[in-house]
Amino acid sequence: MNRLYKLFFILFLINSNIFAISRSIFVPRSTTRDSTLELSQSNYFFYHNEDRCAKYRPWFYYFFSPFVQRSFNDKDLAKYFLKCNKSCLSIREDGLGDVGSLWFAAMTPIGSFFNSTYSVRPVRTAYGVYFNMYFDLCYGLWAGIEAAAMGVHHNLKPCENVTSPAGSICNFKTFSDAIDNCEFKAGRFTKCKLTKGGVDDIQVKFGHNYYFREDDHFGSYLVLSIPTGERQSSQFAFEPLIGSRHVGLGFGLNADFNLYGCEDHSLNWMFDFKYLYLFQARQKRLFDLCANGDWSRYLQVVKNQPTSLQGLAGVNFFSQEVKVTPQSDINFWTAFHYQHCEYNFEFGYNLWWRQKEKICQICPNPSVAIANLPGFPTFQGGSASSANISQAILPPNQIPTDSTFTTVGNFNFNSGKTPAVLTHKLYASFAYDYFMCSHPAIVGITTACEFATGCNKRNALEQWQIFLTLGFTY
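and the corresponding structure tokens:
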């Protein structure tokens, strides 16, 4: 029974805020690995645009889908970045808040203390065109290529309410300015909207289908993900990313069953399961220190040199090049498709799960120590190896002082990892199929909503999406 109690206690701690940590990197879902964009209407059209036994059945299918999507869980997503997964931080110079302002060189004249509340409301907007090409080969074989040319906007939307009784001195008047320090090589909470454009990872598929009962099929395929992105720099907390540096290899299953068919009416049930393993690549990530708690990445540090009296930004030393392995990525898609003559109605669901990243350190920990702030703004040497980001130079939450120069301890790799994510997506779609120059074609529109539950709400983007589907054959 004692072991059972311990197990329940551990589960309670895991689900409480005791182990809650913020993350320094956010990696959104790849657009080309979005099964809704890939399969909505196009999957049915590929298998049912006409009788498969027709003499001149098309062998080339081309779809392109202009899309736009936008996140809406800004309050939950804010907890992903802020200390201890809080939605709002108290920034105080006296050590009674969540974050000590002295670590960011934000202070007021003698006789008063800097005091403010700080929050963010992260929003991601993505737009572009999704391309999907299928080649219907002989003997049930087929091949496919998918890509997306797109752009993204990331906006942290920081908000701060400064209630200090006197004007600030030193380097920064607000915490918003301090954490957007241009000298930070990583972890900046910028006030500007960040924009990026490019081509998302390319997917190549090769499969085989087995047909039975005329309109039904079951197939399997191999999938290769070709990276197109740049190396992540972690310069910004909400860094815009398109594509990755990770090669992916996996497999999938696809099936289609006719549930009802009568003259011009038909009802089909379809599903697609895809597993992808993403391999290792080098990235630059920002980490906290194990012994110093959440947001210790922002502590100031000093070098062990007689002339090293000025504090240095810890983020410039705690951002390290590491080997990152995203591991498994799973998509399950299912839909019901109703067709009446040329009119097509589809309702579907997509489950997406991504495994927690695996990180392997390349460089050793830097030979720096956490700065001893009692002599602020001139540091008196020594170190404060057990300090945390909330502390100040006065009791009751005073920065401890080491008797000797003590370098920083191990990195907390969880702070620089993308955690496991599970989302659900529902969509509704309408399409009209027709013949263009004697070749089957289709035009459709789809609306979708992606959501998460539990702790996944702060680890994932909850977003709405709308896109057109335009398909042509040859």
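(Above: one complete record from the training split.) Residues 2-15 form the longest helix (14 residues).
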